[in-house]
Write a structure and sequence with these properties.
The complex is a heterodimer of chains A (88) and B (302). Chain A is mainly α and 88 residues long. Chain A has helices at 5-20, 24-35, 53-87. Chain A has one domain (5-87). Chain A is built from 3 helices and no strands. In chain A, helix 1 crosses helix 3 (53-87). The termini of chain B are far apart. Helix content of chain B is 69%, strand content 0%. Chain B is globular, with a radius of gyration of 22 Å. In chain B, helix 1 (2-20) crosses helix 3 (61-84), helix 7 packs across helix 8 (206-213) and helix 9 (216-230) runs antiparallel to helix 10. Chain B has a domain at 142-261 and 271-297: Arp2/3 complex 21 kDa subunit ARPC3 (Orthogonal Bundle), CATH 1.10.1760. Chain B is mostly helical and 302 residues long. At the A-B interface, helix 1 and helix 3 of A face helix 7 of B. Chain B: It is a multi-pass membrane protein. Chain B: One of its GO terms (cellular component) is Golgi membrane.
Chain lengths: 88, 302
């Protein structure tokens, strides 16, 4: 119950770290094999919402988070480690 | 000293102005004094006490000059940073102003709707050329005033309940405020993430979703005050049940038109997309009573 803003920031940092350390080879490529063949087929017409689009969206999200947050995550982690060392 | 005396008169004049303007529903959004004083006359009593303490402070001429300087520089800085933002954010910043454009009749109607939504009525929101209509004009439009005020009232009522149980310390107020904020952020973040992952494009904007997720605090206050008045667990549970049912009904009626597909057939939607929308709507509606229960249960002592 006693949540503070700091614990939210900590939890968010841990989650983004978890997304960033997913292994491409073992994990993401297995999911990609099932889905890469799909979006080329029926992309025409007014089919705005893909049936299997949830996985596609999730993969896009994961890939974009990894690309964007790789460098800033290093900085955030260093700052958080320093804070925890200095202030407990 | 003459200009400082003039500045002090000008400051007191700004303080006493809201009392005369309290009945009008038109006020400028961004000037430092009027942003603090809301237009409803129900709050002239607290502003009386605030005004008298401010008058004691404003008798000091250095304070007036300092306040004027700080106010001008703040306006300057915020003007510059707002102009630096990209265009989309500027539009959403100015539309936040629309969400605060409420008046007394709207607030009364909305509160009675939240506590008793079961009468048959028309739930559709009117649209102007540019975007949604401000709440002053249309009763069905979401606003930010009620959620904001009810969050603050929830923190105060929680402090009151803790006080009657001799568990109150001033840190509890800050803890309740920050945990309400954190749970709100988590809830809205998860909902936006779910909207994105399920690839649902709806007319519901993020700002509207924030408003709709803030309406549960009114129910929390009702349940907590019923517990406060009677100190009975049975009354608390009954009011919790009633508030959950009425809030769910209210949210279903409001969000149904925005999330579920248009039945007039102007858009083509996938069959799977319809099921997802229904599930998402159900999820939104069921999360609210869960939060109401979770955020009030630690205050109840059998």
């Amino acid at each position: 119950m006693g949540f503070s803003l700091y614990s939210l920031i900590e939890a968010a940092l841990l989650c983004v770290n978890a997304v960033a350390i997913l292994n491409e080879q073992r994990f993401l490529s297995k999911i990609n094999v099932n889905d890469q063949n799909y979006p080329g087929a029926g992309a025409y017409g007014n089919d705005h919402q893909n049936a299997g689009g949830a996985k596609q969206q999730l993969l896009t999200l994961i890939r974009s988070v990894r690309t964007v947050m790789r460098v800033p995550l290093i900085a955030f982690n260093i700052i958080t480690i320093l804070f925890l060392i200095l202030f407990g | 000293m003459h200009s400082a005396a003039q500045a002090s008169n000008g400051y007191e004049g700004d303080i006493t102005m809201p009392h005369t303007r309290s009945a009008s529903s038109q006020n400028a959004f961004f000037s430092p004094q009027s942003a603090f004083y809301s237009p409803s006359s129900q709050q002239t009593i607290p502003t009386n006490q605030v005004a008298s303490s401010m008058e004691l402070l404003s008798n000091n001429p250095f304070f007036n000059v300092g306040i004027k300087a700080v106010g001008d520089s703040m306006k300057d800085i915020t003007g510059k940073t707002v102009n630096m933002l990209p265009n989309e954010m500027k539009k959403s910043l100015s539309s936040i102003k629309d969400y605060f454009a409420v008046d007394q009749i709207y607030v009364m109607k909305k509160l009675s709707l939240l506590l008793f939504p079961f009468r048959p009525r028309n739930w559709s929101v009117g649209y102007s050329a540019d975007g949604p209509v401000p709440p002053r004009v249309d009763t069905n439009a979401p606003d930010y005033y009620i959620p904001l005020m009810s969050v603050m009232t929830y923190v105060l009522v929680a402090g009151l309940v803790l006080g009657t149980q001799n568990r109150f310390t001033p840190e509890q107020l800050g803890m309740h405020a920050s945990s309400a904020l954190v749970w709100n952020i988590i809830e809205i973040g998860l909902l936006c993430l779910t909207f994105y992952i399920l690839n649902i494009q709806s007319k519901l904007r993020t700002l509207d979703l924030i408003a709709y997720c803030g309406y549960k605090y009114v129910g929390m206050i009702a349940a907590l005050s019923s517990y406060l008045a009677t100190h009975s667990l049975f009354v608390y549970r009954c009011s919790l049940l009633y508030v959950s049912i009425s809030l769910s009904y209210f949210l279903i009626k409001c969000l149904r038109l925005k999330i579920l597909p248009d039945t007039s057939g102007s858009h083509t939607y996938n069959a799977n997309g319809n099921a997802r929308r229904v599930y998402l709507l159900l999820a939104i509606v069921l999360i609210q009573p869960l939060f109401i229960w979770y955020l009030t249960r630690h205050l109840i002592v059998t």
